[in-house]
Amino acid sequence: MPQKVAVLGTGKIGEALLSGMIRGGWAPSDLLVTARRQERAAQLRERYGVEAVSNAEAAKSADTLILTVKPQDMGALLTELAPHVPADRLVISGAAGIPTGYFEERLAARTPVVRVMTNTPALVDEAMSVISAGTHATAEHLAHAEEIFGTVGKTLRVPESQQDAATALSGSGPAYFFFLVEAMTDAGILLGLPRDKAHDLIVQAAIGAAVMLRDSGEHPVKLRENVTSPAGTTINAIRELENHGVRAAMISALEAARDRSRELATGNG
C-alpha cells in the first residue's frame, strides 16, 4: 500500500521536498500539504496537483508527517496536532534545535519521531540532510526519512547529541559561503574588477573547489598547498587571513551557532 506523506507548513524547504518527492516517484495523490495562508495552499495545489488540507486533517490521514514550520511556531502546531496524531504515525521534524523528546512529550506515547536538519541547497537538489532517531524510531523509520530527503540531496545519520553541531556546520553552512563570496566580490571591486565579472570569477572558483573537495579524496590542506607556491600570491593572502584571525573567527562563529541551536531547544526564542 502506498504511504501518504503530509508536509505541514509548506514554505520554501517544504516545497522543495514536495517537488523532490514527486520527481522521485511519489504520486501527487499520496501527498498532502498544509499552509497558513489559503492563497499559498491554492498555489501548491495548482503547481503540484496535491491536496491541501488542514493540519488536523493531515494528522488524521497521512502515515508520515513532516513538520517544516519555524522552531518558534512548533509548540502551537503540536498543540493543534496532538489530539489527532495516532501513535503509529511517523513524525519528522525539520526544526532547528528542538530535540525529539520535545515531540515525544507532547504526542501520543511511543510516537516515532525523526529529527532532520537540512539546508537551503535543497532548493537545487544539493542539500545535506542530517538525520537522527528519537526514542521510538526504528531503522525502518530512518530509512523512510532518508528516502524522502534523499530526493533533494545527500543524507547522513548522526546521534541526536551531534545535531546541534551539524546545525552549526551544515544547516547554517551555506550562509557562511555566501558571506565569503560577498566579501570576495567586494575585494574584486576594490581591485578594479566590475561586480559582475568579480562575481563570475568567484562563483566558478567556489564550484571548482567544491567539486575537487568532493571528488579528489584529498585533504583540504593538500589541495590548498597545491595552490600555494613559495613566495607567491596565495601565501601572501593566507598570511593576511591568519593575521586577521579568520580561522579562529570561523571556529567561534560555529560555536555561536551551536550554542544558539541549544538555546532554541530550551525555548529561548
List keywords for this structure.
269 residues; 8 strands; alpha/beta
Layout of SSEs?
Layout (H helix, E strand, L loop, with lengths): L4 E4 L3 H12 L7 E4 L3 H11 L2 E2 L2 H7 L2 E4 L3 H11 L8 E4 L6 H7 L6 E5 L9 E7 L5 H11 L3 E5 L5 H9 L1 H18 L4 H22 L3 H8 L5 H11 L2 H20 L4
Parallel strand pairs: 1-2, 1-4, 2-3, 4-5, 5-6, 7-8
Antiparallel strand pairs: 6-7
Please provide a written account of the structure:
It is built from twelve helices and eight strands. With 269 residues, it is an alpha/beta fold. Strands 3-2-1-4-5-6-7-8 form an eight-stranded mixed sheet, sandwiched between helices. β5, α5 and β6 form a beta-alpha-beta unit. α7 crosses α12 and α8 packs across α9. The longest helix has 22 residues. The mean pLDDT is 94.
Indicate the low-confidence ranges by residue numbers. Answer: none
**Judging from the principal axes of the Cα atoms, what is the shape?**
elongated
Widest β-sheet, arrangement of strands = 3-2-1-4-5-6-7-8
Structural class: alpha/beta
Q: Helix amount, in percent?
A: 40-55%
Count of separate DSSP helical elements: 12
Strand/helix succession: EHEHEHEHEHEEHEHHHHHH
The counted number of beta strands is 8
Average pLDDT works out at 94
Q: Strand portion, in percent? A: 5-15%
* Cα-to-Cα separation, first versus last residue: 41 Å
Question: Biggest β-sheet: count, sense, barrel?
Answer: 8 strands, mixed
Overall radius of gyration: 21 Å
Quick recap of the structure?
This protein is α/β, with parallel strands linked by helices and 269 residues long. It has helices spanning 12-23, 38-48, 55-61, 71-81, 100-106, 139-149, 163-171, 173-190, 195-216, 220-227, 233-243, 246-265, and strands at residues 5-8, 31-34, 51-52, 64-67, 90-93, 113-117, 127-133, 153-157.
